[in-house]
Amino acid sequence: MKRGEVELKRELQIKSQTIDDLRQENMTRMGHMQHELSQALLMKSHAEQELINTRLQVEKVERDGKQEVAKLQVN
Fold it and tell me: Which pTM does this prediction carry?
């Protein structure tokens, strides 16, 4: 092989390795981002459930209050 060919092959190997390294780094980052997304969605789901429960409690308190008022007005 000529010297130029050897240098070009070496450059090609280096660039291929760089591409492989970047690809692996991107896969790792995507994995971390997917994990963060699933955690955020879980937190959102918990917050939504807490909001629903709080609204149900408020509705119950309002109903109980109206019943109490109606009961006191009858007496």
Answer: 0.67
Give the integer Cα–Cα distance in Å for 38 and 33.
9
Q: In which element (H, E) is residue 2 found? A: none
How many residues would you count in the chain? 75
C-alpha R_g of the chain: 32
CA 40 to chain CA centroid, nearest Å? 3
Structure tokens at 72: 């006191």
pLDDT digits (tens, 9 = 90+) for 25-56: 999 999 999 999 999 999 999 999 999 999 99
